[in-house]
Amino acid sequence: MPRVLLIEDDPSVREGVVLGLRRRGHELRAVESGEAGLAALGEFRPDLVLLDLMLPAMNGVQVCRRIRGTSQLPIIMLTARGDDFDVVVGLEAGADDYIVKPARTEVIEARIRAVLRRLAEPAGRGGTEIHGELAVDRAGLSVVKAGQSVPLAPSELRLLLHLSASPEQVFSRQQLLEYVWEHSYHGDARLVDACVRRLRQKIEDAAGSPRYIQTVRGFGYRFGPLG
Amino acid sequence: MRLPAVRFGLRTRLVGAFLLVAAISAATTATLTYREARSAILKQAQDTAVDQFRDRIGAQAVTLPMDEEQLRRACRSLAREGKPHPWTVFAEYGTLRVSSSDRPTSDVVTPALRAAARGSAHGSFQRVVKDGVPWLTVGMPALVDRGDGGQPTGLVLYAVMRLSTEEANVEAMVTAARDGALPALLIALVPALLAARSVLRPVRDLRRAAAGIGRGELGTRIEVRGSDELAGLARTFNDSSTKLQESVAELRQAEARARRFASDVSHELRTPLAGMLAVTEVLDEDAAQLNPDTATAVRLISTETDKLAALVEDLMEISRFDAKAADLHLDEVDVAEAIRKTLEKRHWQDRIRRELPDGIRAMLDPRRFDVIVANLVGNALRHGAEPVTVRLRTERRGTTDRLVTEVLDSGPGIDPAVLPHVFDRFYKADAARTRSAGSGLGLAITLENVRLHGGTVHAADGPAGGALFTVELPLERPSEPPLEGPSEPPSEPSLEGP
User: Closest partner residue to B278 among A11, A13, A219, by Cβ?
Assistant: First the structure.
């Protein structure tokens, strides 16, 4: 069962989430500050971080950036609806998904499973595909660009795998939310846009004129054509 | 009965009144002056004539009795000396009637003058107008002075003269008055306009300021000039608008406080709810092993926590609309697909009749559109009766396309008394039912979401009964995809500060 690090300053939320997730068999470590969370990373070695955005001292967005500086660990933000700006900043900082509080344990667990599935479930075909300078290893879940390994967060990798599996096919944001994030059709399209932006910064030569992840105005995104 | 003057503007009336006053003053002055001057001119003329006539008669050697020939000579002699007015002299002596002219008697000498002349030693005069010609007639008895102041001789002499020069002078005066009055009135128009302007400026200011207040510019004030009635009015106006501004500011503050309070309360409720909601499943799962009473209590807490969480979410949502903090995250959406997904998410797809033509794409906020449709369909299922129909179409209104979504149920329709309130917050159509399945905010949130999209939502009875909710949103079609080449996403959230 996955090991989850919960960084949450409110005791009742912390206790509630810990209780709910432990009963479902997750191994949990709960800390109350960003600093403690960063300290627990090395020792606890979690599979996933549940990160409250509103933390005292170092806030969730800063914690997220610090984690992304060294690792592509799955990160799910806990947020309140209405903290829209924080959500966008958190997504830009590299979070894979977010959960709006208050949420039932089953919702939290479903998101955890979805994020981890992106890593655990390799897309059907094995072997390495070459797209221009990009080498995508579907079995090994790694991406190499011009000989250099590209570290991708789980959501970024999953999005790239999904799009590149059907080159030149256009996917709407709602479809990508359903397929990649396992959200409802009416989910937050900003997840997709933020993830696309992060992915472009990592794999495109110039993020402003993307070659691999292209926008199809009025419809969504597609992979290529590389032309 | 309205006076015609009421139809004229204030300026016209002011200038009119001013000119009327000027005209009356001018006319009065002219009339009085004319009368005084006329009587002075005439008086001088007649005094001169009377004195002269008396002197001439006194200088005339009168020897009595006289015969007709002597008398005529005397008359002619007197007539020659008539200066500056030539006069005609008539004499009456007993039955003798002679004159310096061809006619022995004058027809302008009246019996009244005759009587007066005979009675008075100093003579009399009279002004007579005959056939439009003014005459001065002077009657003078000839006296015999024997050292006793003079005795009447029975001879009475009359001088009759035309007052043509005086008449011409008076005529000239009338003409001068008439010719002077018109330019004077025209000149009076200038100060009249200036006065009207200075009186009307505060009135104009007042009108402008009142219009400003009406537009909601409550800071509008009038400059107070002087200390007249209009200045007082301006002061009153300023005081009133200050008070109005204060009241409005107070009301707005109270409203903002109330809204902030609702927002704060729901914020504060959310954190404990997050903890509680995370453990409700523990309660649900373990309830079966508890004794029946505890199990019921535990399940009640679990269910109510869910409802409370939904209510707090709705309250937060409403607070954000009130604080104008609700954002629209537009995305290109296949509308029929979005509605189908909304129904599927809530397992309603088999209960709802769908008339959803494919191929309608629009720029919408998918989450908010989901809320709109879900609240309307949920409302129809709760308060109406099945079957419920969701219908989608586009309509052209003038130059804009509208996206029309209808939700129609088969219930009894909406009570006309309830109809105006269906979108009110926490409005309960049935007073006996204190709690409904929803939060009581569903339709209010729908209304706000529709407004946020720039659309309208309308409740009415359907053509065949049942409640019909119609949502009209402006239809912004996503632009067509380019054939080739990469481009940027159309609506990326900005990362620069809020």
Answer: A13
